[in-house]
Amino acid sequence: MIMDRLARALDDRLRLSPLTRRALAKVFPDHWSFMLGEIALYSFVALVLTGVYLTLFFDPSSADRVYQGSYAPLDGTTTSAAYASTVRLSWDVRAGLLIRQTHHWAALIFVAAILVHLVRIFFTGAFRKPRETNWLVGVTMLMLALANGFTGYSLPDDLLSGLGLRIIVSVVESIPLVGSWLVFLGLGGEFPSDEMIPRMFVSHVLLVPALLVALVSLHLAMIVRQKHAQFPGPGRTEHNVVGSRLYPSYALRSLALFAWVLAVLFALGGLVQINPIWLYGPSAPDQATSPAQPDWYVAWGDGALRLFPPWEIHVAGHLVPAPFFPGVVLGGVTFLALYAWPFLERWCTGDCRAHQLLDRPRDHPVRTGVGVMALTFFGVLVVAAGDDIIARLLRVPVYDVLYVLRVLVLVLPVLAGALAFLLARALRRGDAARLGELTRADLRAAGRRARVGEARAVDESELPARDRPGQRIELWPDGGVWRWRYRDEPAGVTLLHHRAVLTEREAADSARLAYPGVDHVAVPGPPPPPPPGRVRTALRRWGNVALGVTLLVAALRQRRNRHPGDDGDGTGSR
Amino acid sequence: MVVALAAGPAALAAPAPTAPPETAALPETSALPVPAAPPETAAPPVPAVSPGASATSAEPSASAGSGPGRELYWQKCASCHGDQGRGSQRGPSLVGVGAASVDFQVGTGRMPVPDEVQQPRRRAEPVFSADEIAALVEHVTSFGGGGPDIPRVTEGSLGTGRELFAANCAPCHGGTGAGAALTNGWNAPPLYEATPVQVAEAIRVGPGLMPVFPSQVLTDQQVSDLAAYVQRLRSERLDRGGNPLGRLGPLAEGLAAWVVALGLLVAAARWLGRRAGE
């Protein structure tokens, strides 16, 4: 009642109902891979929630502070305020460690989900026109996520993150001419400076998160404006979106995913230890710990630094130190390539049309091959960051591991990329539906040169369907409004339009927009409801059986009770 | 991390005078603080024993000491280390290694080894009983040459121990005590099994690649502090956050994030998406 009145009051003043009606009726595709980005979004929500709690107790300062608390080996030790407050947060603040660990796990999952989402977008060609702008926004968010992850990892001022910070500072210093100036500008002095932690804190909790919130909003606004892309399928064209409405169906599913994300993150935060900074000890420039790695999403940089040979090159009298190439050049090239990919691909294929239907990875063997190659390359680099752990687990000399990885980082990506290219081509040319069904003949055919006219074959399904048998649009009046649906009888597909319109003409127009060229007919009266789904039928059947059995059992029991009861009554009365 | 390893010796409070890092090429079995040994030789450093002596050395000859220690030594040690402990091609000299070294090597189960290995591994249970180890220690010290005694560990301060550990031990054994890889296939072992006395012995003796820390570098009290902190590192209570994932650091955590967490979440998304079709 109150909600109803509140809604009415708001609508009177802000005229929200047309907007809300449109928003609630927005259609989301049902394919699961469209929810990967949401995992990242919900991890970000978890990050903000837990991060706010942490700021209540964290002291972003490198001033001396005596830690006094329940962690005995550090009790009475003078460390930086940042470190002391993080140890206090972990040992003496109620739920502090749970929240801190959940925050850290959420950061790992955040970047991982972004990456998986990016991989989905890449391999399905969802970055093509008109979605290049959203790709740029997404790549920027990935970059910001990496930066914020790194500052967050460094804030506690522990020994392990101190080593990582030292390495990053050295990488920046390795930039010829401007390196040391950049470091001075960023840190406000020599490493480790007093300004370091407060500056990282401001960027970690204010600047970058604010940018991320703005970009997330932009990302979602563009999706709403441009509508979702979708996989090809019956009833799906370049002009419509097939899926579930936001309310109630998709909203509930999305909330369920939110609950899943929170559950997994907090379970990890409570059960699996992450970054035990009390064990590492406070950061000190003259100390080190081993094995030392950064969080996984920066590990590719660490791996590259480990693998790159110690070449020092002189250019015009200036030394270019070895960390410049794996540190600065690789990182720069990686993100430049990510930014430029949609435009590079358009330039290479000459395909300037807008695409609303997604590719399958097999549809573009070259893109698939390049993607797998890049993923393998960065995968090997991440593994290389753990060369000392591998050496220890395998009990082999660490330099042997390093040499093997140096070869692998060059060879494996090429092999994996070529294999992916061939498999994609075999799948595309042959008639195998999935990888497991590929035959040797398919693979042999993939090795040959492309046939003429193959590229055309993809485009045909994207043309408007004209006079296809069995396809039609049905319109009918439903109370005061009109509805329409698409039916493809041979494929057994019935798709209901997500919104009702006021006139028959409007319904016909919107149907023509979604399915150009399909004939439409007016149907008198509402059509019969669709047959119930498999699960619902089974549930109903089992429910009926269970009800029958219960009634039978109840009846039998009552009878049995009545017989001794009758006797008892009988004796009593006599 | 290579950077960390390179920084290791530099981070010591002071370089150990008797064993500069170059002597690291010697196998751990030597437990060598012997300054007379040439640095590069991995072969037995004592030239006094002829190469063929090891084959016959199991026979009792001139004895230095007596009792069960000598018996055990002849049975288990002499074939490599020589009947007078002067070493052979198969094992280094034991003259002057000191009681602490023998107690450490045998007490942790690293010795005896069935065949030559670069770095003997700790056994869960030592091969000999405590009495037998004591007898062996007595017999080997009777070869002469001095060397560090078995240290007496007293009560130590955790705070000082932590600081000393961070400065001297963490570069190789890791801040968490989980151990790490060194050069040439050597490993700094994890410290979770070590008793306080074994920690103190290792500090004084410097087995394998480990530098020696004599009393000029670390006083007896500081060694006790370190032993106390290492005992503390073993305790489960330090893993307050839950499963420590082997205390291997961020890459193990990243693996868990990908395999467990993201795996679960993607499975959840698939499940939710699949249900949408019904």
From TrEMBL, chain B:
SUPFAM superfamilies: Cytochrome c. Residues 64-144, 156-234 form the Cytochrome c domain. The keyword Metal-binding applies. GO terms for molecular function: electron transfer activity; heme binding; metal ion binding. Residues 35-48 have a biased composition (Pro residues). PROSITE patterns: CYTC. The keyword Membrane applies. The chain crosses the membrane at residues 255-273. Keywords: Heme, Iron, Membrane, Metal-binding, Transmembrane, Transmembrane helix. Residues 12-29, 49-65 have a biased composition (Low complexity). It holds the Pfam family Cytochrome_CBB3. Residues 12-69 are annotated as: Disordered. This is Cytochrome c domain-containing protein. It comes from Micromonospora sonchi. The lineage of its organism: Bacteria, Bacillati, Actinomycetota, Actinomycetes, Micromonosporales.
